[in-house]
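Bench notes, afternoon.
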Amino acid sequence: MAFIQNTFSNKSENYYEFLGVDPKASSKEIRQAYRDKLKEWHPDKNPDRIEEAEETTKTLNATYHILSDPERRKNYDRMLLFTKKNDFDRYVNDKTFWEKIKKAAPALKQILESVRDLYSLFSDGVKGRYKLHPVTMGIIGGGLLYFIIPADLIPDVIPFFGLLDDVAVLTTIINSLQGELLAYRNWKKNNE
């Protein structure tokens, strides 16, 4: 998922805010809000700001795709909870992360640079220095949380093997977010 700074990123934090509905809104309310916004932002109705209208329409479609399906909406709601800074502070913070990296260094040797960049990307996203889509934030945050919390699929206390599942999860996230990581690295290089 490549980094796109769009109307959604600039105007709100999550899909519910973007649509202007309560997180407990019914599927009917979500559908109506989606249709209203789609009419408002249709590119044909916004010829003077066609790019913004096209980006907003894409985001509206992505929003509705997630919120209109009960299972996807449930997963999105979970990820949204994880992206709230207060939930992460207990587990995902600089000290905890770097302590875990030191312990995991041998198993993570091949992906260590990408893991560091993934954490920096997430950290800059949470702190508002870099715009990330909420779903991307949730994916990264969930992966980092899985990595940091010792009670996961294979307990981390088991030498070497305890980190294999962590490496697998992080590798999957890194591979799926290559475009985002590249955009972030370029952004960071240009902003240092």
